[in-house]
Amino acid sequence: MLNRVIQQLGLQVESMNEVEDSFSSTVYQCVLSTGERVYLKIPFSKLKFQRELEAYEILKGKVAIPSLLDHWEGDEECPGAFVLSELKGKPLTTAATPNIAYQVGVLHAEMHSIRPPEKSLKGIKNEFPNWSTFLEKQFYSFAEDVRDVLDESLYRKALKKFEQMKHELPAPDGPSFVHMDFRPGNIIVDEETVSGVIDFESVRFGSTEIDFTKLHRDFLSCDDRLFQAYQDGYKSVRPLIDLEKVLPFYQFTDAFNSIGWCKRRGVEDNASFLEVNLEILKKWVV
């Protein structure tokens, strides 16, 4: 399929390497015959392709993202493909300075400042009007998979915990463009500058509260200075919700849903990610 995608897009590729930290889509870093470095991305499904395509149109000129150089809408065998410009730098790490954390906050808030367009979209749904229902559908759709992984007692405790915690959430904040996978691996940094954000296969319009969990787990919780700088950057663009009131619920549900994701994509292939989320889940329900 890869050769067919390259042919459809008319790419003259000199060399290519698959990007490892891509859990859903298939991504290749390519060097073209002109010497230009680009990324070739094949999304996991047609829906994810459509979401990403719409996201590039919505975010262009408003948020720092790669340029969409070309795309192919695919066929019955391939969901489609994108040719993307290279954002200079490497994924965000906990070695970043407070200056970088501040810029990440600005970037995140700029994205959350984007409201749903008036025109109808095929891929990106506005889940905000029925936010509570959206959370329930996500949780209980993964519950069918999680049940095969957890013992019955832990599974029942998790369901009970969800029902308890969802009633403690404050009013939703939005409708905003939410990334749904805003984590260090999707934030590109070049020395002391944040180059931008990547990967829009899971985006929605919804409440901002769902979008802080992974960044907090993998970056903000590691250093109080980074957390404070991030908050200062975010607040320079828009008000920040009280994270203490929402993070516990989303940390719990993210771990639960991630266990279900591992079951769907293969427990053996995602063993380490599964183990991490099992430990997080147990902290909340045991």
UniProtKB/TrEMBL annotation:
Residues 18-240 form the Aminoglycoside phosphotransferase domain. One of its GO terms (molecular function) is transferase activity. It holds the Pfam family APH. This is Phosphotransferase. The lineage of its organism: Bacteria, Bacillati, Bacillota, Bacilli, Bacillales. Keywords: Transferase.
